[in-house]
Amino acid sequence: MTTRCGFVALIGEPNAGKSTLTNHMVGAKVSIVTHKVQTTRARIRGVALEGDSQIVFVDTPGLFRPRRRLDRAMVAAAWGGAADADIIVLLVEAHRGITEGVTRILDGLSELPKGRKIALAINKIDKVEAPQLLKLTKDLNDRFPFSETFMISAEKGHGTGALRAWLAENLPEGPWLYPEDQIADLPLRMIAAEVTREKLTLRLHQELPYQLTVETENWEERKDGSARIDQVIYVMRDGHKGIVLGKKGETIKAISKLAREELEEFLGRRIHLFLQVKVRPGWLEESERYSEMGLDFKDGN
Ligand SMILES: Nc1nc2c(ncn2[C@@H]2O[C@H](COP(=O)(O)OP(=O)(O)OP(=O)(O)O)[C@@H](O)[C@H]2O)c(=O)[nH]1
């Protein structure tokens, strides 16, 4: 049997639907989907199997205009991820069309070395009528020579099968990166951290959630079928620690409960979740943290 395997980078503006598409393709909730933009901080991968192909999805952070240093690292990571991938898929929102952000991404694509397959996926087609969709398809293809165009609804699953099949056929021949029986376990620690970060984000609406990170430090399988998961929530300042903990620890308790419930549902078994809050001043500026968060595409592959 000839196997195929490779990386597929999903790029697009914030909210284009990259996480939704990854989740749909992989069939598990690997990255969080919220209405807030720029939630995808870590480089979360999902692995999909299609026939003899193993498709490793790279869910890049949004390509937006960088401000702080971390933002710049994210944009660089997104382009780095795209440049290293075997196939790039640009997601454009059907109803928003060619925005300034899309124009910037098209310019960026033109600067990448030639020869790589770059597909266009027009997403959220459920929001537009056919004539508008056809015009956008033509306009985008006039601007960039895409290998292929797909019209999809990541949320409803329309057209995603065709995209997946095309990706599977176009990846390079080679051995699978992940043994079949390990695929399910692969991103679990990351998923668990993302679930907790999602609950924190939803609970603490202000600026704060963007200034914290969650790491799964320990994962212990227990004989009774349950699992113990230890996580650390890193914040920037002592004051933030107080906010995350809440009065008499009420906030962290509520977050822990919500995260545990979602994990139990996702994993289908009992979970003992232990959260700790630690202050790590200036982590936003610590460059070594970026690679730990998976922001350097070349690290840890
Ligand atoms: N109507 C419609 N909504 C969609 C579709 N795909 C995604 N969405 C919605 O669009 C929003 C953004 O989707 P995400 O998957 O979080 O977008 P993203 O590109 O990962 O965003 P960032 O992580 O911020 O870069 C969510 O509210 C999704 O439910 C679609 O096909 N149709």
UniProtKB/TrEMBL annotation:
Region span, G3: 59-62
Subcellular location: Cytoplasm; Cell membrane
Annotated membrane topology: Peripheral membrane protein
One of the GO BP terms on file: ribosomal small subunit assembly
Region spans: G4: 123-126
Region feature G1, mapped onto this chain: 12-19
Ranges for domain Era-type G: 4-173
Domain KH type-2, chain residue ranges per copy: 204-281
Pfam families (alphabetical): KH_2 (PF07650), MMR_HSR1 (PF01926)
Region (G5): 152-154
Sequence segments annotated as region (G2): 38-42
GO (cellular component) term, any one: plasma membrane
Main location class: cytoplasm
Keywords, alphabetical: Cell membrane, Cytoplasm, GTP-binding, Membrane, Nucleotide-binding, Ribosome biogenesis, RNA-binding, rRNA-binding
Highest rank taxon of the organism: Bacteria
InterPro entries listed in its UniProt record: G_ERA_dom (IPR030388), GTP-bd (IPR006073), GTPase_Era-like (IPR005662), KH_dom-like_a/b (IPR015946), KH_dom_type_2 (IPR004044), KH_sf_prok-type (IPR009019), P-loop_NTPase (IPR027417), Small_GTP-bd (IPR005225)
GO molecular function, one term: ribosomal small subunit binding
Record-listed GTP binding positions: 12-19, 59-63, 123-126
Assembly: Monomer.
Known role: An essential GTPase that binds both GDP and GTP, with rapid nucleotide exchange. Plays a role in 16S rRNA processing and 30S ribosomal subunit biogenesis and possibly also in cell cycle regulation and energy metabolism.
Entry's family note: Belongs to the TRAFAC class TrmE-Era-EngA-EngB-Septin-like GTPase superfamily. Era GTPase family.
Designated name of the protein: GTPase Era
